[in-house]
Amino acid sequence: MKRQYCASVYIIDFEAETILLMYNKKLEKWLQPGGHIENMELPFETCLREAKEETGIDVSLLNNSSFTSFNYQPVYVEHYKNKVGDMIDFQFVAFPLNKKLSNNSENNLVKWQNISNIDTECDIDDEIKFKAKFLFNTYRETYFLLNS
Length: 148
Known about the structure:
The chain has helices spanning 43-55, 126-146, and strands at 3-13, 18-24, 29-31, 34-36, 59-61, 76-81, 86-96, 109-114. It is of the alpha+beta class and 148 residues long.
């Protein structure tokens, strides 16, 4: 099985206290937007492109190392095997620049999920629930400092 590289992004609306999730038909579960890294793309460029393609919105990445640097670092790098293949996923966190969602043919369900009641949703994996709460609490202050 050939190893594949992808990037994904946890899009958090810190003001509304929601996270953007999409239903992946291939994997049959709710996930953060993301996809395969294309030729000569950096992982952070992939997650910006995939966010727009899969949800219709533009996002701004939050950098976990500096307020002024454009050296975006992933918050997680995960290795896993699933129906798609042997994957390395570079995961980032961002906030939406606009909130008008659009669906596409590959992943036709996109929704804003309230973080405060995410634990009651039985169709969302525990890993996504944990990361949504953790990233919201970790980056909330950074977001409000950057946008005040």
